[in-house]
Design brief:
The structure holds 2 protein chains of 2 kinds. Chain A is mainly alpha-helical. Chain A contains 6 helices and 2 strands, in the order H-E-E-H-H-H-H-H. The longest helix of chain A has 30 residues. In chain B, about 20% of the residues lie in helices and about 25% in strands. Classes of the chains: A mainly alpha, B alpha+beta.
Chain lengths: ~130, ~250
């Protein structure tokens, strides 16, 4: 009896551990992307990219990584061709933002381009004072 | 006194209406309490029906410098502002050009920012010039640029108060009012064809040119069929030469 009881306890423990670890992995997958938006500042200040919003659209990591975007944030900004022209040619964001999969890159500019004002708001930098005017 | 103008939000004088007709634009609406005037290019038929009068079209200004702002392409990168500051030595506390922001709503109810570059409107009927007690600010009879002659400026700031566009500031170093002069001293008079802000804009938002030349990009831009063009605060009667449109 004692052995049987021990076996039950062991099996129960294994089940609990498995459940917990699965839950943990699932939880990790849910949060395994930057929770804060990515802010691009080159070549212009500033463009916002929100992982959460794009995940909600049904995309997963593979949709954009490592092609068209490397995992490491800031990699695309190092490239000279990280600009609107490339987007229009279907590179970077233009992979999807072509007017079919998602709104075309030459429309709705300020949805992603938050400007210096948007950047300063996110960073908590006060706007340059123009009190004299 | 013409004070009633500002208290009647939808008021556009016949004179103003005629001036725009002369430019080949018809007034299609007055919005935002009269601070925004919506203009549409006249069809050829309509243009033919308009009695030709003296106005924007046959001014003494040659070239008649003006700017068209393709507003919805502005992303507030502020490269124009940086270029202006650098070119014209604008101090931290002032500006010759800046970008305003407002929030708009699309058809689906989503909000998005609208960025509006602003600068001196180089008005046809500039209130600043009218009020200056020392003739320190004038409208150049050749180019239409509203210029500052800082040696005559006594710093009374009357022009600042008169300007409908908040386009002037007091420069502590110059001990005089400073404002946009379309980079006249820093670029145009040296043979450059465009202002520093125009040259710096990566999105071709700002287009500079000669309103008296029908082959100029600015003239063509504001005379596209089915493209609305507007000016800021038309109710003041200043008749601005900065035109706004969406691309």
């Amino acid at each position: 009896m004692l052995r049987k009881g021990f076996l039950y306890i062991l099996m129960g423990s294994v089940a609990v551990v498995m459940f917990l670890s699965t839950a943990q992995v699932m939880g990790q997958e849910d949060e395994d992307y930057p929770q804060e938006p990515i802010i691009f500042t080159k070549p212009v200040k500033a463009v916002i990219f929100d992982h959460k919003y794009h995940i909600e659209q049904g995309l997963d990591c593979d949709s954009c990584h490592d092609d068209p975007f490397e995992m490491a944030a800031g990699t695309a900004e190092q490239n000279d061709d990280f600009n609107m022209k490339s987007l229009y040619e279907g590179k970077y964001c233009g992979t999807c933002h072509d007017g079919e999969s998602a709104f075309a890159a030459n429309t709705r500019c300020t949805l992603c381009h938050i400007g210096v004002k948007g950047y300063n708001r996110l960073m908590g930098t006060p706007e340059k004072g123009h009190g004299e005017h | 006194m013409k004070e009633k103008r500002s208290t009647k939000p939808d008021y556009v004088t016949d004179e103003e209406r005629r001036e725009f007709l002369k430019l080949g634009l018809k007034i299609t609406g007055v919005m935002a309490g009269g601070t925004v005037l919506s203009l549409m290019p006249l069809s050829d038929q309509e243009a033919g029906a308009v009695v030709k009068l003296e106005g924007y079209e046959n001014t003494q200004y040659k070239p008649h410098y003006c700017m068209v702002i393709r507003q919805n392409d502005c992303v507030d990168c502020q490269k124009c502002m940086e270029a202006c500051v650098k070119t014209n030595h604008v101090p931290e506390y002032g500006f010759r050009t800046t970008i305003l922001e407002k929030t708009a709503e699309d058809d689906s109810g989503n909000t998005f920012p609208v960025f509006m570059p602003v600068l001196c409107n180089h008005c046809m009927n500039p209130p600043c010039v009218r009020v200056c007690p020392t003739k320190a600010t004038t409208k150049d009879p050749k180019t239409g640029i509203v210029l500052m002659h800082i040696e005559k400026c006594i710093g009374c700031k009357t022009c600042m108060a008169a300007c409908p566009y908040n386009a002037r500031y007091y420069n502590e170093e110059k001990k005089a009012i400073d404002k946009c002069n379309f980079c006249w001293d820093t670029r145009l008079s040296k043979g450059e064809k465009e202002t520093a802000c125009v040259a710096a804009c990566p999105a071709h938002v700002r287009v500079f040119g000669d309103l008296s030349d029908r082959n100029s990009e600015v003239w063509k831009l504001i005379h596209q069929p089915d493209k609305a063009v507007w000016v800021l605060r038309p109710e003041t009667g200043a008749r601005p030469c900065i035109f706004y449109m969406n691309d």
